[in-house]
Specification:
The chain is mainly beta. It is 13% helix and 44% strand. It has a 16-stranded antiparallel β-barrel with strand order 3-5-6-7-10-11-12-13-14-15-16-17-18-19-20-21. Helix 1 crosses helix 8.
Amino acid sequence: MNFPLRFVFICFIFALTLYMSKRADALPIFARKYQTSCTTCHWATFPALNPFGKAFKDNGYRFPEDDEVYVKDSPVALGGEAWKKVFPNTVWPSTIAHLPPIALLVTSEFTVNPKNSSGKTAFDGIGELELLTGGTLGESFAWFGAAPLFENEGSTKGSETHVERLFGVYSPTLFENRGLFNVEFGRFEPRATPRSENLSIIGTTPYLFSTWATLPTANFTTFFPFQNGVEFFGGKNGPKGNGGLLWSAGIVNGEPQEDALGVWEENTVNFGSTIVENTETNVQSADNPFDVNNSKDYYARISYKIGGMGVLGGGTVEESKKATENWQEKSLTLSGFFYRGNAGFFNDPVGGTGFHNSGNHFWRYGMEADFYWWNFNLFGAATYFRDRTDSDVTIEDKSGQNFDADLYTAELRWVALPWIIPAVRFENMNPSYDAGDIDSFNRYSTDITVLIRANIKFVVGAAFADGNAPKSAFFDDSYRMGMVIGF
């Protein structure tokens, strides 16, 4: 890879990793509400969800059956039950949580990067302190949120408190069933993503399908973990209450102004002025609340599960929330997804000139399989990136309008013991750009989680890429060990 392209690539990847927040893990609020273990909903270790946890989430953060029977923290009534009989001549009653619906997540890590020129080892002390919130409001509404209060970004950078995710869910009861149709609104992770970044138990590296940036076109909208918009989703159990169908579709703002072009402004400080000093005046300020264009991204996903618990919690609740071996299931889920959007791009990404507010028409689509067999979970996905620009993008002596990449992901998780969970991930990225030579490469990631208690875990992990990977700190060999506590 030539130096100018390598420089731009490093700028993009590094700026993106600085921008991206660490994900939220378990939510102890629900453990207090139902006075049950974290493992009721989580797959051996948080944040991964077991079949019951997925059904809980898809039912508007409620137990799939007879939710009110299992609530131990009695809610505070906002209006009497009799009000329902005189509606619409009065306000429909609701409830709020008796205890404050908040929890905290604390992480602390020791990391090793043998190739880092400024330092090869580091303690982060308290790496992150995150405020979590979630709960239900009455019969049909729920909410979920995560806001980092402190993030250790190194001795030269401060910590910014911000809302990572905060969204509401409306889950009406239709035909005496909940979960057939739901509406999610606010700031959330689109269900189009091949696998949720926020529910991954491998924290050493993020998924490439969530972070790969189409560099020549300055497109940071991959399956961006946090989007603003509205999403519709639902499901129906299959024959005899096993497996079943899940669907989702949504429309979101797409590439936010400050998320995308803000990193170009950060590069002025972090990497010198080469990239941005000649940027044209039609690149707006990162303080602008609107996107770079008026286009909206849209997406859809459909999944079918064969075997196992029903997607909306088939079987009795007592069977669903058994205290031991609740990760075990024999099932196969097949899914297809697409994400369509329109982003800005630069005719000259290296010089930062020739910016267009729109014109990079892109697709993200693919298929996946999620297989559970007793103590094993094997996940595989093929994700395709397709970018087409309205005019040529030029990098040195090459120009073109097509910027494609194919990504193949495989991940294996194993419950060796109920409190020891190793996981490994393999990713194969194959860029095919008209301009800008990036070789195909592989990346390998692994974490071993030891649950000291249901809400305390010790993690050791490693990640490395082969010699064809771009020369960036993002792909350096790295090792870590740390603690995560939720309370």
